[in-house]
Every structure is written in C-alpha cells, then in structure tokens.
Amino acid sequence: MMMRATTVATLLVLTLHATREAAANKIVFKVQGFVKMCTLYKYPKNVQAYATNRLKQWRMKIADLNNLCEDFKILTKKWRKVPDVATLTLIRLLRHEAKVLEHKYQTLAEAAPLAGSLSAQEAGTMDEAAGIFYAATKSGGGGKCCLEQNSSISKVDTATDLTGCITEESAPVAAAADTPAVEVKPSDITTKWTGGQITNAVGTGSDCLLTQTDGNGGYIDTNWMASGIKWAGGLLQFRNSQLTGNTWTGTSTSLTSIPVLNAAAQQLTTISTKWHHASAAIDNLLKLKEPTEQTFTDIDTNEKVLNPRGQDKALKVTKEQLEQIRKK
C-alpha cells in the first residue's frame, strides 16, 4: 500500500511537471529584437581598437616631430652662422609640440587598458546571451527554436540577421585590431532607446528550447517568461505577458541596474577626454618633411608657450617662411 501511494504521488508530480513544462513552451524571439543589442555592443568592442589606433598615430607624429627637430638642428650647424629667428622658433616649436603630444600619449596609454577591458567585459556578456539563444535555435529540432525571422514562424537558418553579433559557427564577432576610424562616444552606449526598439521582441512561434523547465523549475515558471529573468548583464529582461512593455532596460535611465554597462560607460567617459588632441598645428609642421611645395598656414605663438619662464612676447612664423625653410 505504501509503495502504491508513493507511485501515485510520483506519477502526479511527473504529470504536473509535464503540464508545467508544456505551459512554458510558448515564446520565441524575433531576430529584430536582438538588433538593439547588436547595435549597442559593437561600440564597446571598438574602444580598445580605437584607442590603440589613436596611440599608433600619435607615436608616429611624435617621432616625425622629433626627427624634424633634429634635422633642423643639424642643418643649422652646417650653415655655420646664427639661424634666423623664424628657424629658431620653428625648432623650439617642434620640440614643444612633441613634448605636449608625448604627455597626451602617456595619459591615454595609461587609461586605455582598463577602459578596453571593462568595455570588452560588457560586450562579452552580450556575446554570451546572443550565443546562447542562437545555439538553442541552431540545435532545436522539430521546429523548436528561440530566434525566428522577422515576421514568420520559421527559425533562423543562418547568422545573416545577426551580423555584428555572432557568426554562423556561433562564434562572437570581434573588433578589428586597428580599423575603427570613428570615435566611440559615451552617448553611443547611454542613449535612451525608443519604444519601437524595446517592444515587440516576441515572435509568433513556440517551443523555445530555453523555456524548458527542469525538475527544479529551470529558467521559467508557468507564466511563459517569468518577470525578473535577466540576460546580457541585466540589459535584457524578459517579462510576462509575452514580453510586452519595457523588455529592454532603458540604458540612459537605468545604467546602475546594468553594472557591466555602467562601468564601461564610466570608463568611456573618462577615456574620451584623453584621446582628443588638436592636430591642425602639428599637421602644419609635419608638412616640412614633404619633398614638394606645400600650402602652409602662419604660426602665431608666444615666448611663454615655448618657455614658461620667458617673457610675454609674440612670436610668428609666416607661411612663406615655412615654405622657404622646407626647401632647405
């Protein structure tokens, strides 16, 4: 009798569990619902690459400025006469600009590793979320999937719609080492998303593999997607009622609820003040190393700029003088 009671209880539990599992198999997600995440985390992936690219450019300019300075020093010695004021001013200015840019270089070099690592950590949480849903879709048999095409019940067959997120082999898309030429700005990851970008993420199919419950309740309860389940470091929060409402956390108002994104945003705000440097003056000077005629702009500076202990005295090198010096 005891055994029969135990058997009945076990069957009852299994029946209830099966019912619960069946009830959970409701939701898949439109690929377009992941476009926001793909758009967002391509920026932190480029932080380290952009900083590295900027450092390489600055290193080359510092070397060019110093080389020009040394070349003119050697040249003035060959003249065996006191150089004119314009040439002396130019030599001092080359040395000054090289030192200023060297300081900028060191400051950025110190900030880049932390900013890059935190940004990569943030992107990694999104890589993981995209990878899980994509892998579940690729592995789903019998129509079971987690990601579907925009307006159909068919599951995703290739990674085409996840460009920038994950490849067909379920490998995350990495940033190129030195290609980003566009500056990554804090607003790129803190801008509030519009309603159209944070709603209607639910698809029309069913049987998403990730909605399967295990003996302990698994990911999901009987209300399809339980409120409070978060992915991608808290950026993506699945709710009940078929994911309607504020499915995606609004980044501009809820950064503190997404620790990895908040840390990346703070570091990006810090580093974005360090990778700016006015290049017009330096670019004007670097024309001196060109072998052909150049179009220069006048240089207006001050003795106190080149020598903080010097007197307040205006210094000028005209564009005509620059061209004459270049010819030497």
Automatic annotation (TrEMBL):
Gene Ontology annotations for the cellular component aspect, listed alphabetically: plasma membrane; side of membrane
Signal peptide (from-to): 1-24
Main location: membrane
Keyword Ubl conjugation: no
Keywords linked to the UniProt accession: Cell membrane, Glycoprotein, GPI-anchor, Lipoprotein, Membrane, Signal
Domain Trypanosome variant surface glycoprotein A-type N-terminal stretches: 10-297
InterPro entries reported for this sequence: Trypano_VSG_A_N_dom (IPR001812)
Gene3D superfamilies named among the record's database cross-references: Variant Surface Glycoprotein, subunit A domain 1
Localisation: Cell membrane
BP GO terms, sorted: symbiont-mediated evasion of host immune response
This protein's name: Variant surface glycoprotein 1125.5342
